[in-house]
Write a structure and sequence with these properties.
- The protein is mainly alpha-helical and 164 residues long.
- The chain has a single domain, classed as Winged helix-like DNA-binding domain superfamily/Winged helix DNA-binding domain (Arc Repressor Mutant, subunit A).
- Helix content is 63%, strand content 7%.
- It is built from six helices and three strands; from the N terminus they run ααβααββαα.
- A three-stranded antiparallel sheet has the order 1-3-2.
- α1 crosses α5, α2 packs across α3 and α3 packs across α4.
Length: 164
């Protein structure tokens, strides 16, 4: 049996869509606002959830903890996020948007939202409803698959094929 062409794979098609639209968001974030898309994702998460610990932020933003920690440091240095130690445990910190972070979010979110609205305008209202329902089912299926999967972790430090 011949495998399907790459263009027939759902994840490939979604990745291409994200690559094209993501570039627009990246240009806005980096070129106009001086933040990365990862930092934007974290700002959006904090704006929607309020104060969070670093591990809660990583979980809600679906980012690994090491990358979250690095991006938090950058956001704090840019005065977009504040870190406050808990009185009960000085090792634990809570992250919050600063006034400057909230202002950036308030300015950038409508621009990112407009990209999404323009993209979704390609669908008729009934198609958009069906697409949303399908995305919800796909997300639920992906989460079930991820929970059940027993896959090796990537060894990013190893170079080469790793088959020998």
């Amino acid at each position: 049996m011949t495998p399907p062409p790459l263009e027939a794979l759902l994840l490939y098609r979604l990745s291409r869509l994200m690559a094209v639209t993501g570039r627009m968001v990246t240009r806005l974030c980096e070129g106009r606002f001086g933040i990365t898309r990862r930092e934007w994702r974290m700002l959006v998460t904090l704006a929607g959830s309020g104060a969070l610990s670093s591990s809660q932020l990583a979980e809600q933003a679906q980012l690994d903890r090491a990358r979250t920690s690095k991006a938090v440091g950058s956001l704090v240095a840019k005065a977009l996020v504040s870190r406050e130690a808990l009185a009960s445990d000085r090792r634990q910190v809570i992250l919050c948007l600063t006034e400057r972070g909230r202002a950036l979010y308030d300015e950038l979110f409508p621009l990112v939202s407009a990209i999404n609205v323009e993209l979704a305008a390609a669908l008729a209202p009934a198609e958009a409803e069906r697409f949303d329902a399908a995305l919800q089912r796909l997300q639920a299926q992906a989460e079930r698959m991820a929970e059940a999967a027993v896959l090796p972790k990537a060894d990013r430090g190893r170079r080469g094929g790793g088959l020998g």
